[in-house]
Amino acid sequence: MNKRVYFLMIVSFVIGMVELIISGILDLIAEDLNVSLGQAGYLITIFSLIFAIASPVLLLMTSKIERKKLTLVSLVIFLFGNMITVIAPNYAVLFTGRVVTALSGALLIILCLVIAPSLVESKYRGRAIGIVSMGVSASLVLGVPIGILLGNTFGWRAPFLLITILTILSIIGVYFLMDQVAPKPGVPLRQQLATLKSQKISFAHITTFLYMTGHTVLYAYLKPYLQTATGMETTWISVVYFLFGIAAVAGGGLGGTLADLFGSKRSILFSIIGLGVVLLILPITTNLMVVFLVGLMVWGMLSWLVSPAMQTYLIETTPSTSDIQQSLSNSSLHLGIAVGSLIGGIVVESSSIEQNPIVGGFIVIIALFTAVISIRKPLSNQNEMARIKKQIEL
Questions:
Q1: Category of 34 on φ-ψ map: left (φ > 0), alpha (ψ -120 to 50) or beta
Q2: I need a surface site. Which of 63, 103, 131, 297 has the fewest CB within 10 A?
């Protein structure tokens, strides 16, 4: 495997950290900038919403630009966005910094996924994409405990200062280590969205959106939930986040294995049922700390076990447009993070944070129904799929 693929994995990890790293320090931001906890949570919502929508659009808009140059320009913009975040004197400026980092970060992640396969032989392309994707998933689950550790020690700006430094190192690395990569014409967005005319495909993406929404309703506000429901101190909260992160990364690896052993459909249904049940029973275990911690780790594992099984399912269902489906699946996932953090904030503001796992659990149960619909539906619109495949090959 080309070593530069692992470098792209590191770059994707740095970019991905920005999305959810803020969830562990929401209380610090809210207190320092004099805003409510729900308003602080909207900083996750705006980032993930932009990330979900901007990725395919920006990739098409920049399809004629040489990839190394585009990566460097995007990294510089990403650096600028993080610098705004670090020095933000108020909520409005911080919000602006999140918009800038979301736009540039969305393009950077896709660029890493596009460049990685071009660095290896054709037989290793799938593995190269998997390595970069691992950097993204690891950043989403490990970025939060890193943010808590630095935020509680040095203030909420410290995690973003770290990301700023890592971004500078990434710019230097791309400039000296990466070769020029010629752009490839992208498939028009309208043709990509045309694949969603098949209900089997569209309900699969809806399932991804719903289970990630349900997961994020609680995860985006996990730190204040732990403080309210269990009275847990900051040191233990950091430990909980690290345990959760380890379980989530393990779940990502286990998901692919289970899909191979038992089939993607069974793995999807098992994961979603388990995730919904764990979220619903979590509130009644808060007085039994050992059981509660085990439940958190099971939740962490199941939350990322669904994704590889769903990706395998999409590849099996429509191999001719599998690349497009992976892109749309990524957008569905980040859209779920955006909506989940929004709903979670509404619950916190209008009711009680102790209701977040219940609300999240019911949303995951709805995802079970959409998954069943997708699995039972026959694949339609196959002529359109074949036409899009030809467009990709050209």
A1: left
A2: 63
Q: What's the pTM?
A: 0.81
Distance CA 173, CA 39 (A): 36
Side-chain half-sphere exposure of 195, counting CA atoms within 13 A: 27
Distance CA 303, CA 164 (A): 29
Domains of the chain: 1-185 (1.20.1250.20), 187-394 (1.20.1250.20)
User: Would you say the C-alpha torsion 156, 96, 19, 72 has a positive or negative sign?
Assistant: negative
3-state secondary structure of 155: coil
Q: Are 96 and 46 in contact (CB under 8 A)?
A: no
Cα angle 352, 279, 20 (rounded to 5 degrees) comes to 75
Two structure tokens written together for 150 = 């630095």
Residue 393 reports pLDDT greater than 60 = no
Structure tokens at 225: 């939930």
**48/42 Cα distance (integer angstroms):** 10
pLDDT in tens, 269-287: 999 999 999 999 999 999 9
Give the pLDDT confidence score for residue 86 in this predicted structure.
Answer: 96
Instruction: Judge whether residue 314 has pLDDT over 60.
Output: yes
Cα of first residue to Cα of last residue in the chain, in angstroms, is 27
Span 123-135, pLDDT tens digits: 666 567 667 777 8
Counting every residue, how long is the chain?
394
Check if the beta carbon of residue 51 is closer than 8 Å to that of residue 19. yes
Q: Say which residues have a Cβ less than 8 Å from residue 54's Cβ, sequence separation at least 6.
A: 102, 103, 106, 107
Tokens (6 digits) for 125: 């392309």
Q: Tell me how far apart the alpha carbons of residues 215 and 219 are, in angstroms, rounded to a whole number.
A: 6
- Using CB atoms within 10 A of its CB, is residue 22 exposed (0-12), middle (13-18) or buried (19+)? buried
pLDDT 10s digits, 132-179: 777 877 786 778 888 888 998 999 999 999 999 999 999 999 999 888
- Reported as half-sphere exposure (CB side, CA atoms, 13 A), residue 339 has a value of 19
Exposed (0-12), middle (13-18) or buried (19+): which is 340, by Cβ within 10 Å?
buried
